[in-house]
Amino acid sequence: MSKTSLKKWGYMLGIGLGIIFVTAFIFSQVILPLALGRAKKVDTPNLVGMSLAQAKRTLTEDKLHAVIKDSLYSEVFKIDQVMEQSPIAGTTLKEEGTVFLVISKGSKMVKVPDVRGSRFQQAMVMLRNYDLRSSIVDSLYSNEYDQNAVLRSSPAAGAKVEKKSMIRLTLSRGPEPRADSLDYDDYLFPDLD
Predict the structure, then answer these.
(1) Which of 53, 108, 131, 142 would give a disulfide with 172, using CB separation of 3.0 to 4.6 Å?
(2) CA terminus-to-terminus distance, the chain
(3) Dist CA 139 CA 134 (whole Å)
(4) Which pLDDT score is estimated for 193?
(5) How many CB atoms lie within 10 A of CB 128?
(6) Cα 72 to Cα 27, 79, 142, 162, 174, distances in angstroms
(7) Helices (DSSP H) in 62-157: which residue ranges?
(8) Domain 41-104, what architecture?
(9) pLDDT at res. 89
(10) With 0-12 CB in 10 A as exposed, 13-18 as middle and 19+ as buried, what is 34?
């Protein structure tokens, strides 16, 4: 094939592809909407303050979709409440449009539960349920609490701390042994029989 005939085929191919793209565009943007009807327009409802489930239900009724864009801590909004939306309420969207939501993770602060008297394992689980971490920092004798029971926590019960904070626990060693109950001779000089 000569160079001119290759050029000719290239032009024809380019023109043919151009015609196909223009036809597809006109068909999708003009003919199909006229035949099937254009998508209705919907005003975006105000979702701020609603629970996530309620917001999704409202959007579904309006033939819109919800997408969670982010979740943040908030001292104002409860867990799973909508804090922000995009587009804002009142904006006109086509049916099947998308509304992006920012959801609350709840407060970043939590009250330290009272774990005094609980066995260490129970206290650890209780603190984990409050999204707190725990560590044993000391153990003391106590006539009031059994061995391995929590004597005190630091910060103390009722204090507000950030989630994921470390709560330091002091455990009981049980009652202090009495000096008169020990037989030092047996301890120092055990029978060698």
Answers:
(1) 142
(2) 114
(3) 14
(4) 46
(5) 11
(6) 44, 10, 43, 14, 44
(7) 120-129
(8) 2-Layer Sandwich (3.30)
(9) 92
(10) exposed
Give the separation between CA 10 and CA 99, rounded to whole angstroms: 45
CA angle, 87 then 88 then 91, to 5°: 75
Give the pLDDT score at 4. 82
**pLDDT for residue 34:** 66
Candidates 173, 170, 143; CA nearest to 154 is 170
**Dihedrals φ, ψ of 90, to 5°?**
95, -15
**Which residues does the chain have with pLDDT short of 50?**
193
- Selection from 97, 61, 102, 65 nearest residue 85 by Cα: 102
Q: Do domains 41-104 and 109-172 have the same CATH topology?
A: yes
CA nearest 44: which of 99, 96, 83, 82? 99
Q: What are the sequence ranges of the domains in the chain?
A: 41-104, 109-172
Taking the C-alpha atoms of residue 132 and residue 115, their distance in angstroms, rounded to an integer, is 12
Residues 94 and 64: their CA atoms lie apart, in Å, by 8
For 69, the token pair is 């864009």
By three-state DSSP, how is residue 92 classified?
A: strand
CATH number, domain 109-172, options 3.30.10.20, 3.30.565.10, 3.30.70.1560, 3.60.15.10: 3.30.10.20
The percent of the chain in helix, strand and coil, each rounded to the nearest 5, is 30, 30, 40
Tokens of 120: 């260490």
Closest alpha carbon to 119 in 145, 137, 144: 145
